[in-house]
């Protein structure tokens, strides 16, 4: 059975780009959600080994999603990677402080994405 990864991103083109890169280079099963609310609906049905999330999204944003996941025993130790346009050091620190495993700033190269995911994928 393939490793399941969830990509939470409201921009359809960016979500597709991330999903295609992960599928092509890592051969993981990629599930996609357009916001935190959609992600929460997918979580009970799947055993995700990693979650990649944007910060700025409608409904439930990435920081709210991470806060929820870190309080849930099933997802407490699942690697969560933030992929965001928020490039300030303060944003990065805040994301890591609430429980993100790593932080990648957009724009990024495909190689940077794959390296980061490989480093943290269980």
Task: Reconstruct the topology from this structure.
Elements: E1 4-8, H1 12-26, E2 29-33, H2 36-42, E3 48-53, H3 62-71, E4 80-84, H4 89-97, E5 102-105, H5 110-120
Parallel strand pairs: 1-2, 1-3, 3-4, 4-5
Helix pairs in contact: 1-5
In short:
The protein has 122 residues and is of the alpha/beta class. Helix content is 43%, strand content 20%.
Considering the chains and any ligands shown, give keywords for the structure:
single chain, alpha/beta, Rossmann fold
Commentary on this structure:
With 122 residues, the chain is α/β, with parallel strands linked by helices. The protein has one domain: Rossmann fold (3-Layer(aba) Sandwich), CATH 3.40.50.2300. The protein is 43% helix and 20% strand. A 5-stranded parallel β-sheet has the order 2-1-3-4-5, with helices on both faces. Helix 1 crosses helix 5. The chain is globular. The two termini are 14 Å apart.
Structural category is alpha/beta
Just name the CATH architecture.
3-Layer(aba) Sandwich
How many strands in all? Answer: 5
Largest sheet geometry:
5 strands, parallel
- Counting structural domains, the number is 1
| Tally of individual helices | 5
Give, in spatial order, the strands making up the sheet with the most strands.
2-1-3-4-5
Distance between the termini: 14 Å
Overall radius of gyration:
13 Å
| pLDDT averaged over residues | 95
Sequence stretches where pLDDT stays below 50 over 5 or more residues: none
At the third CATH level, what is the topology name?
Rossmann fold
């Amino acid at each position: 059975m393939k490793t399941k990864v969830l990509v939470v991103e409201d921009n359809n083109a960016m979500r597709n780009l991330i999903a295609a890169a992960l599928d092509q280079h890592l051969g993981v099963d990629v599930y996609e959600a357009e916001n935190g609310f959609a992600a929460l609906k997918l979580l009970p049905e799947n055993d995700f080994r990693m979650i990649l999330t944007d910060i700025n999204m409608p409904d439930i944003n990435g920081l709210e999603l991470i806060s929820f996941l870190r309080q849930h025993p099933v997802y407490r130790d699942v690697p969560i990677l933030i992929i965001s346009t928020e490039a300030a050091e303060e944003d990065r620190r805040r994301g890591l402080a609430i429980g993100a495993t790593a932080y990648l700033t957009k724009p990024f190269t495909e190689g940077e994405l794959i390296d980061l995911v490989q480093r943290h994928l269980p």
